Amino acid sequence: MRTRAGRPEAPVADTPAEANIGPSGEITALAIGCGHLVPPDTIIVERRVETSRGNLTYDFPVAGTASWLCLMSDAIMRRDESKDAYDVVWLIDALGPNRAGDLVMASPLLAGPFAPEVTRQLARLIFDQFFDTDSVGPTAYAEFFESHPGNAERLHAQRSLTALGNALLARGIELNRSTSPP
User: How far apart are CA 152 and CA 146, in angstroms?
Assistant: First the structure.
């Protein structure tokens, strides 16, 4: 029940938002791992937008490709949302695996102290979550389209991430394949 119109309120008890209280008491949008990777890997996307008082150019801070893929790998592991797998495949398809590989390679995360964590998350995404068509990534991707078992969709998802893995390896990004299933 809202008590203060137009003002932020405390989350309702027993809701996911209740677990998302930030360090200064604000409600945060996400309660996921790897969020600490976003600030050093944020890019600015400039767009012309329409406002109630006219148009203006606005700088949108956006997670870079490397940190975003790490966030999604963590989300696939911790949540049961087929859209997470769909979003990963959509991004790789939209950019193409080579452009996605270039963007990951350009991330400052790979040159700093977070590099081992980033490569571990990327390896988890490619060599575990999308390892084969029976892995959670391709299965969730197919379920997003309500095509169970959706073999064509599962194969597409798995191949998209395999292509990303090949693009990363071709750029010298070492991914530990030991995260793949036995």
Answer: 12
